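Work package 3, deliverable 3.1, input record:
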Amino acid sequence: MRAKLSPRPYGWLGSFEAMASPCEVHVADAERDLAERILELTVAETRRIEAKFSRYRPDNVVHAINTAEGRPVVVDDETARLLDYAAQLHQLSHGRFDVTSGVLRHVWRFDGSDRVPTRAAVEALLPIIGWSKVRWRSPEITLLPGMQIDLGGVGKEYAVDRAAALVRPLSSSCLLNFGGDLLALGPSSAARPWRVGIESLAGTEAAAKQIDLASGALATSGDARRFLLKKGKRYSHILDPITGWPVPEAPRSVTVAAPTCSQAGMLATFALLQGRDAEAFLEAQGVQFWALR
Amino acid sequence: MQLKKRQSPTFQKIGAPLAAATCALLGQGTSNEVRAQELQPWDIDTSLLIYSEDNNRVQDISLNGLARKELREDSYLNLTLAIDTLTGASPSGAVPSTVVQTFTRPSGDGQYVIGAGQEPLDDTFQDTRTALSANWEWPVTRLALLSVGASLSDEFDYTHTGLNAKLARDFNNRNTTLSFGAALANDTVSPVGGSPVPLAAMLEVGNDANKRGDQSKDVVDFLVGVTQVINRHTLVQLNYSLSQSDGYLTDPYKILSVVDPVTGNPVPGPAGSGLYRYLYESRPETRDKQSLFGLVKRDFDGNVLEASYRYMTDDWGVDSHTFDVHYRWNFDGGKYFQPHVRFYQQTAADFYERVLFNGAPVPTFATADYRLGEFDGLTLGVKYGQETSSGEWSARVEWYTQTSTVDSTALVGSLNTLDLYPDMNALIAQFTYKFGGR
């Protein structure tokens, strides 16, 4: 779908689809030309990142790494920075955030059904999960045969932050929103913050919470739509890579405010991985957050 | 069975290493200051105000609540509730005397006695007032905000009902705002013991021959104003307002002393009343006020100076000047400190008389209410506040002193030895707590 720019009372709204999400670029107090340039920059950067790091594409670096069958792959600088980042997140989360855990989706399909996998099926995957089994000596990465990496857990937030960095010199009255992960470069006009709604759990139209965002990022992690329900037990799509099973008693949705979308997204994900202690974890981090259970 | 108490684990703070990792990923200068705030269903402001005049004069304890709800973006409902409890005594308007004076209470069912040299204060002054208002504001166009409201207040001798509307329109990239406002009010006065016939003499207890029933007045206000943003640090505002009152504008509890023009002593009142001669005050039935208000607000590195001046003039001959300055010092952690100075000066109404002289013709209008005399008022105050994650609290203390100008024509005979114009001092303390949204 092509990107579209439409006038709004405050300025302009650019919209496009990327990374399986509706993406929006709100630009206030700007001429059409400027709004168009901002939208073009954002679309181009987002599509570039999606093309380069999507695990669904047969022609990119992630595909090369995932199909190397035990051979080392030398990666470019940007990929190396993302892998360094993944390594640091793995360490900071004590192994709970793991870019190699994506293979669990072979047995876990969070489609709202009751198809919970067998214990044996989950256990069969554990040998090919674990960042500690990856040999990463920048710029060279080697996976065990059958292992895969998936940068989907950081990609959307990374795209928001990258696009924001490109837009920043052009406008400070701009808000990027990629499927609920968003960043405001500044207020919409002098002292007027952006109004952001956090979706309510029931999926109703009304937003559960409304937040005024003048600058900074908000990212949300949760399973408002992605879950399994069996015998009254709800299985969250937040999987613990150590056990291969959903983290019990995690909040349904966590939204965190941080200086960058990447930080906000990571804090939200780390919090969900803490299960029942998600809120305590975020309290300890001293960040603004909104958790829905 | 063994019971285990579950303890929440303590968490490592990952903020700094995560920030460092993100910085390595994205490069320098990609970070944004976080300014996010959740909207609450209602913003609530509450305050307790204590106003206390010295020498056992008026004491007011006032509880105020404001609830504000955002109905849609930029559309707000504001509800206010105020409850005031007034106690204490207020000057009746009569002058002190070298003799003991006896007065009939406004209710007509009792007397009070003021000793020689004492200021005549009516100590029956006691009331509870409840006031409610509702106001709805919404954008009628992208640049115009309309607000409409209604107000109601009730105390045992006074009822107020009012309607108001205001339109504000932005121009010039929202740097200029023009405002137009209008308000209508209808007030009913039901004085205790009836409303006295203007300039009638005070009668003895139980005699209500000089009293009438309820009275009312209408007030219409208009306002036109302009607010201009000068630059990032400075804003100025200029308002003109016109207020027209029509109806019963007299204070039913205020009286004037009639004294001997030579001795200054009270003269005998109506035969058989056993009182000296005191006349109920009389004011015109219309009053037109105009005022001009100018304000400058300026930011000095995050601290804010606000200075304003108001000139008011009316067709009663009262002209007033008000200078008001406060400066808000903001400190780390949402704390602020705000000193305040206000100076007020007014001329007397044309019909203000401290006393009436026996034998002289009685004027059509006369009042000895000190609030219509010539005086200066000075207010000095400080406020300290603290913004918190959930709202803000603040405490304010102010001291007010009012000095009346002595009119030497009133100083005859024994009145020369008495203080006809005592200073009035008041202490104001207020505690405010806000919670909810911003």
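Chain A touches chain B through 50 residues (CB under 8 Å).
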